[in-house]
Structures are given as structure tokens and as C-alpha cells.
Structure to design on (187 residues):
């Protein structure tokens, strides 16, 4: 039964997540929480780990949750389920690419989805910042370490640009986040 639940849960994530991994986080959260596979705090940790490890966040999360719930077979099933819709869509799009992208209705749909994806990613980011800095709703309490880390990371963007004249690389941001996390929470 767990194999079927993993397959259907992550198939839903794979089918209905637009805008990449960050756009999928709310859907992943809903699926994982509805089945009781992880609590909100553990999911937040796993999103951070999935972000800092190689590979897409959705695949990393699916693999972890599948492994956590049903071992190796569960990780394979969850990973295949989350990847299957994208794989099939890419096959279809590749076959129809030349004509589909020239179609004005397809272009209109893609232009309409872009602001929605931005809104979902922004809402997820705000939710994660507030949840980390203030805790969950029943017991709201300021988390000084999380507020400090959030301030450091937010300040690193303009500081890096001011000193180097370049945008902050996501890879460097992950390294800064990891080092700051070790410094603040590690000892």
C-alpha cells in the first residue's frame, strides 16, 4: 500500500508542479503532510538539504521521502513517479516543438503562467522565512538565530554586488548559507 501511496502522491507532484522546484514546494508540502510522511520542520530541513545537494529538489525530496517510508524500493518508486510526467511531457513537446511554440495560444498560456509561478515561489519563500524566524502558528516565538541568519543572507546580496560589481552566484549563496548555519547552529 505504501508503494502505491508514494507513487500516486509523487505522481501528483510531478503532474501539477509548474515553474520548477520552488513552485513545487507547496504541492510537495501538501502531499507529504497529508500522508503524514514528514512533519513541517523535517520537511523544511529536507528542502534545505535538497537545495544544497546535486540534482533537482523535487527528485531529491522524492528520493528521500520514498527511502524514509519504504526503503530502496520506495525511493525508486517515488523518484520515478515525480519524474515520469516531465519525461512524458518532454517527449511530447519535442515532437511538437516547432509548431507548438509558434502557436499564439500556447504563448499566451506560457505568458499567463509566468506571474503565477513567480507568486507561488514568492509566497513559499515568505512562508519559509516567517516559519523559520517566528515558528509555527500555534506557538509563535522569535527564533533569534534564524532571524540573524536571514539578515546575514539578505545583506549578502547587496554587499557582494557592491564589492564585486557582479550578482551573487547561487552556488556561492549556498556555501555562505552552509557556513553561516554551521557557525550559528553548529557550536
Amino acid at each position: 500500500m505504501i508503494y502505491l501511496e508514494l507513487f500516486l502522491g509523487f505522481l501528483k507532484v510531478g503532474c501539477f508542479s509548474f515553474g520548477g522546484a520552488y513552485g513545487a514546494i507547496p504541492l510537495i508540502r501538501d502531499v507529504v503532510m497529508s500522508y503524514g510522511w514528514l512533519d513541517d520542520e523535517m520537511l523544511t530541513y529536507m528542502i534545505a538539504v535538497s537545495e544544497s545537494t546535486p540534482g533537482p529538489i523535487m527528485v531529491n525530496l522524492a528520493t528521500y521521502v520514498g527511502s524514509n517510508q519504504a526503503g530502496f524500493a520506495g525511493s525508486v518508486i517515488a523518484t520515478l513517479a515525480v519524474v515520469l510526467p516531465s519525461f512524458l511531457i518532454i517527449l511530447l513537446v519535442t515532437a511538437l516543438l516547432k509548431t507548438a511554440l509558434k502557436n499564439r495560444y500556447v504563448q499566451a498560456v506560457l505568458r499567463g503562467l509566468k506571474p503565477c509561478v513567480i507568486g507561488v515561489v514568492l509566497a513559499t519563500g515568505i512562508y519559509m522565512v516567517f516559519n523559520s524566524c517566528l515558528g509555527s502558528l500555534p506557538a509563535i516565538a522569535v527564533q533569534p538565530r534564524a532571524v540573524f541568519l536571514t539578515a546575514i543572507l539578505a545583506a549578502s546580496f547587496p554587499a557582494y554586488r557592491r564589492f564585486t560589481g557582479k550578482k551573487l552566484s547561487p552556488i556561492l549563496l549556498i556555501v555562505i548559507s552552509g557556513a553561516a548555519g554551521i557557525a550559528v547552529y553548529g557550536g
Observations:
- The chain has seven helices and no strands.
- Helices lie at 2-16, 21-35, 40-52, 57-100, 104-134, 144-164, 170-185.
